[in-house]
Amino acid sequence: MTKSLFGLFTAVMAWVCIVIMIQCFRKKRWGLGTIFLINFFTNLVNSIHAFSGLLF
Predict the structure, then answer these.
(1) How far apart are CA 54 and CA 56, in angstroms?
(2) What are the φ and ψ backbone dihedral angles of 29, each rounded to 5 degrees?
(3) 3-class DSSP state of 55
(4) Residue 43 in contact with residue 10, Cβ under 8 Å?
(5) Residues 27-39: pLDDT tens digits?
(6) Whole-angstrom Cα distance, residue 51 to residue 55?
């Protein structure tokens, strides 16, 4: 149960990172947009691991 809740939380955070990343790239803040892009991939990997049961 806690793994799926963690996976859901990280999936939501991944979508938040996508929205903020798009806004940063539109305002030509390339460094901040890159940080949110890396954070998106990290959250995506964590949510996949949480849903498949490989986390912890």
Answers:
(1) 6
(2) -105, 85
(3) coil
(4) yes
(5) 999 999 999 999 9
(6) 8
Prediction pTM value: 0.82
Which candidate, 20, 44, 40, places its Cα nearest to that of 32? 20
Among 47, 46, 23, 48, which residue's Cα sits nearest to residue 33? 23
- Burial class of residue 50 in the structure, from the number of CB atoms within 10 Å of its CB (0-12 exposed, 13-18 middle, 19+ buried): buried
4-21 burial, b at 16+ Cβ within 10 Å, e below that, comes to eebbeebbebbeebbebb
Q: Are 43 and 3 in contact (CB under 8 A)?
A: no
Q: Which structure tokens are listed for 12?
A: 């939501």
